[in-house]
Amino acid sequence: MLRIGNITEQRELYGSSPPSVFAGRAGYPFINIGPSTPLTVGDTSLYDMPEKWIDLGLEDIISFRMSMVTGIKRVRIDNLKDPFIDRIHELAISIKPVDVEIKLAKPPKPFLKLYEHEPPQGPRSVLESFKITSNPRVLRVVDRVYNDPNIKARDAIIMLYFNGIPISSIQRMLSVGALGRFVDRKIVPTRWSITAVDYTVSNKLIEEIREYPVMSGYRMFVRKHYDNLFIAILGEGKWSFEWMEAWYPGSTWNPGSDNVIIEGDYEGFHGRRSYPSIGGCYYACRLAVAEYLVRERRQCNAIVLREIYPGFNIPIGVWFVRENVRKMFREQPVIITNKFSEIIEIFDQYSRIGFRKWLMNSRLLRRIVFNESLTRFLEKYKE
């Protein structure tokens, strides 16, 4: 949590919500939920759309996130008949900013809350009243799933995604309890809804990917961004996926150690049965990988590695992983080759850790190297 200055002392606020809603998880099934808005009127959509943040400076993102004030109210997750939740739904399903009036019990506390999963959250206070003062704009497909009493949340998420609704908008709708069969709808804490949507959409895409031809050869992608290095290696084989992170001393999750901390998780052709220990960034990355393979209509072994260097020491949410990997796959690979040895030859030009250390920690890299060695041995044996 960071203390910030220049926060309004007002209790009555007026602004255009991007739209944005935050749902906490403390005290579950009784949680805090409420609308967020900057004290600005107009097009504020950028304030809560991570899909558009990748080319912005981190200081800019933090600046407009801390300018958004949230009014929170304690509710039970299944109490969707509360008129307050009706207004929250009206706000959350809009595809455009919505003008709101918010009255707080006290002026907001000047703190910026930083999370592993969610984007930074600005100052907040207990909500006394909340009014929508402009007409929300609801797309037809959103209206359809919102008012369908029988559509399952999974099916609604997938329908919205394939109709071009941004991932962040779907996550917001799921969080406020606006998706799913009427009898099953519940408010979902924001951090859980983020991972649930990444998981659900990528699962659907992977179902398709498993039916595609196997990619031939190897492709290596590289992206450097804000003291982070992302490397993706895509290679021959049926669908499998691995996400690994290496945190240097002085970075967000390794502030006090003298050693680089490496961790990760993987899945084979049939997926995982347990939640990955590395957290929601696993599914954020998996979604970006799956989107690329669907565009290419190929399946492969997919390994994505992330090196986090000193200086990157503020948690800003899993969107950072999703959008960086998406951006990386929109660029050309640094190499396309039929020989994995050529990947190894150039790997250390980009990685500070080096191929050898990644190989010691990566299950799928070891599998590729073993298969390559076995292939060369068998070819020599045939001679």
UniProtKB/TrEMBL annotation:
It comes from the Archaea. Residues 267-377 form the Archaeal Nre C-terminal domain. The keyword Disulfide bond does not apply. Keywords: DNA damage, DNA repair. It holds the Pfam family Nre_C. Involved in DNA damage repair. HAMAP family: Nre (MF_02096). This is DNA repair protein. It comes from Staphylothermus marinus. The lineage of its organism: Archaea, Thermoproteota, Thermoprotei, Desulfurococcales, Desulfurococcaceae.
